[in-house]
Structure formats: C-alpha cells, structure tokens
Write a structure and sequence with these properties.
This protein has 4 helices and no strands. The protein is mainly α. The protein is globular, with a radius of gyration of 17 Å.
Length: 139
C-alpha cells in the first residue's frame, strides 16, 4: 500500500489505538470514568494533530532561513523537544481542567503519556510496516 491511502490508513489506525489506550491509562491514573477519559483522549489527539501541523510549519519556516542545511542530530533533537514541549504546554492545563486535578498531577499524567507514545510510536511503525510493507521511499 502506497501514497495517500497508506497515510490515511496509518493515521486512522494510529489515532484510534492511541485514543483507546490513552483513555484507559488516563482513567486508571485519574480515577475518572472511561467515557470522560475517552473524550479527553480524543481532545488531546486533536490538539496533537493541530499542533503537529502548526509546529512543523513554523519549524520549517525557521529551518529555511538557516545557513546550515540538512537535519543533523542537533536539529532533530530541537525539533523533538520543541514539538513535545509545546504539546505538554497545551495538554497539561487541559488535563488539569478536565480531570479537576492540580497542574502537577496533570504534568505527571502527561509525562506518562509521553513515555507511552515514545514506545507506542516505535512499535506501531514497526508493526505497520510489517503488515502493510515499507513505503516506496524506504523500499
């Protein structure tokens, strides 16, 4: 599977599984019912997708003005830290408000999700490529 079909299947599967697992985790960590945690997970997913579009646009605009070209280790670290930092800044207040917990408790929950997503993204991509084959760019 290649092209837009591959991207759509990837995003739908990735987000559906992520929302379900994150909802279970948020429910367990916060003591809130699964329905409330599922809505929060879907909201967090929407925020993450929107932030991804905005952040990557801003990052690429900044990157285009740099004299050093390419994406070495330093630039990749800056990209990852910038993206995750912005996402934490957006989600922690949302979690605190939605779950009626302190900002500290919301930060701990969000950091738990960051660790989960690091592992989940690695495993999901590996399994997805095994099931659907590599994209043309990697084949």
């Amino acid at each position: 599977m290649q092209g837009i079909k591959r991207r759509v299947v990837y995003v739908v599967l990735y987000e559906a599984i992520a929302i379900a697992v994150a909802a279970l985790g948020l429910s367990a960590m916060s003591g809130h019912d699964l329905g409330s945690a599922t809505v929060l997970s879907a909201l967090a997913s929407a925020v993450a997708v929107a932030w991804n579009v905005v952040f990557n646009h801003l990052f690429e605009a900044w990157e285009s003005r740099q004299t050093v070209r390419g994406r070495g280790l330093g630039r990749r670290i800056a990209h990852a830290v910038g993206f995750e930092g912005g996402l934490v800044a957006a989600l922690v207040p949302l979690f605190a408000w939605w779950l009626d917990v302190s900002l500290w408790q919301a930060l701990v929950m969000d950091l738990g999700l960051v660790v989960f997503f690091l592992i989940y993204t690695f495993v999901f991509n590996w399994v997805f490529d095994r099931v659907f084959g590599l994209p043309a760019s990697a084949a």
